Amino acid sequence: MQLPETQVAVLEAASAEDPRTVESLADEIGEKPETVTRAAFELEDEGLVEVLETTDEHVSLTDEARTYLDDGLPEVRLYRAAVEAGADDAPVQMGQVIGASGLEGGAVDIALSNFARKGYGEIASGEITASPAAGPDDDPEAAALAALDAGESADGSVLDQLERRELIERSESTVRSVQLTDEGVTALMEGVEAAQEVGQLTSEMLTSGAWRDAEFSEYNVAADAETIDGGKDHPLRAMAERVKDVLVGMGFEEMEGPHADAEFWINDCLFMPQDHPARTHWDQFALEVPPMRDLPDDVRERVETAHREGVGADGEGYHSPWGEEMARQIDLRGHTTSLSARHLAGVAKGDLEPPQRFFSIEKAYRNDEIDSTHLLEFFQIEGWVMAEDLSVRDLMGTFTEFYEQFGITDLRFKPTYNPYTEPSFELFGEHPVTGEVVEIGNSGIFRPEMLEPLDVDCDVMAWGLALERLMMLVTGAEDIRDVHGTLVDLEYLREEEVRY
């Protein structure tokens, strides 16, 4: 039997009793692993060897874990400091124990969260109690870290906990091994010769004409090859760029602004009362930072007057308190209409004269319950038009023109209530895969109670559309968590085809 030279080398180096890895065969015959792999698959097609595949898990320690190997786990250090302070006899002030432990910054939170979990003691009312029966010397997580550092294995459940604590990184690789079949043994016994085959056509062979007399080895198109995922835009980013192109083409100008802003711009300027349920920590994210000092006095005074007394002869305002202290507090914006308020007030780009068209495609943050169409952060397509004598028909016509650019023609409108727009309505579209009618935006004509304090004396129609919902309608994605967020499905992003 005649075989290509590399196949003969692999066949002779392989064993019928013990599988040999591709790497060990490559070292022995002096070839690259990928060359040996190709030869092995070609021999398997001939029935002379069997290629076996196993999955090998690799566990490596993170930099944080290596710090703990030297200094000890934070919870163990906290326990030892507590025992030294007498907390195994009576409760001790937590601050005293933390100071004695030498823990600082984030290590304190890590120690406290794992102290009780491991049964090292209790923490209550600012005091810490250490359990005399606890055994930090036998801490399984510390032992696992030491074992991994020494190149040894560790219990799977402990590894899971270490991975949750981000103290280890796991990776998997496919290990291929080659073993002779009975047919391969028989072929070796009968004799195998190396055929003078050429595996690759070279420029020298073309120049000399040697290719005419050469025997080329067959190319196995079914051979396994490494999967290479090329770089590309994230579907959500690609959709944002598409939206931007459409809106710029419709004559809109892009606006930008801070993600963390004063409640004044986020809510007060939108004529949202300060005792509104949506302004509690249950719906928005407040930041523990100094309040905003830079608020334009004239705008602030007019906004306060609108809240207290209303606007116009028939205005009453809200029969609820309004405080400047709350208006200056800093939150993550729950919508990007705060950017609209800044621009309309002349703070962002100076005084604006109608007609004007502005948009933004930026993140907003809400404490929503996470499901297939909601995340804690999302991209909002904010937009508004300032002009004389605007009507709902103008707004609906703008939506019709915009969504037609994405193949969405069956829009549905539903009247709703917003503190800052009147009339107001929500937009809905039908999901192309599930048939579900999905809410995709909110809109309306800004109320006088919002516009007059901002010194705007003409109509402004505005909207906030969900970029993720639009992407779901365009691509057919059924769960936004597969596309964006911490649970993103990487295979979906790599392989899913866009459906228009």
Automatic annotation (TrEMBL):
Ranges where the Aminoacyl-transfer RNA synthetases class-II family profile domain occurs: 243-495
This enzyme's EC code(s): 6.1.1.20
Superkingdom in the source lineage: Archaea
Residues engaged in binding Mg(2+): 422
Pfam family, one: tRNA-synt_2d
InterPro entries linked: aa-tRNA-synth_II, aa-tRNA-synth_II/BPL/LPL, Phe-tRNA-synth_IIc_asu, Phe_tRNA_ligase_alpha_bac/arc, Phenylalanyl-tRNA_Synthase, WH-like_DNA-bd_sf, WH_DNA-bd_sf
Compartmental location: Cytoplasm
Molecular function (Gene Ontology), one example: tRNA binding
GO biological process, one term: phenylalanyl-tRNA aminoacylation
Cofactor: how bound: Binds 2 magnesium ions per tetramer.
Region (Disordered): 1-31
Cellular component annotations (GO), alphabetically ordered: cytoplasm
Catalytic activity: tRNA(Phe) + L-phenylalanine + ATP = L-phenylalanyl-tRNA(Phe) + AMP + diphosphate + H(+)
Residues annotated for L-phenylalanine binding in this entry: 337, 380-382, 420, 446
Main subcellular localisation: cytoplasm
CDD domains tied to this protein: PheRS_alpha_core
UniProt keyword list: Aminoacyl-tRNA synthetase, ATP-binding, Cytoplasm, Ligase, Magnesium, Metal-binding, Nucleotide-binding, Protein biosynthesis
Cofactor: Mg(2+)
Assembly and interaction partners: Tetramer of two alpha and two beta subunits.
NCBIfam families found in the cross-reference section: pheS, PRK04172.1
Family of this protein: Belongs to the class-II aminoacyl-tRNA synthetase family. Phe-tRNA synthetase alpha subunit type 2 subfamily.
Descriptive protein name: Phenylalanine--tRNA ligase alpha subunit
Annotated gene: pheS
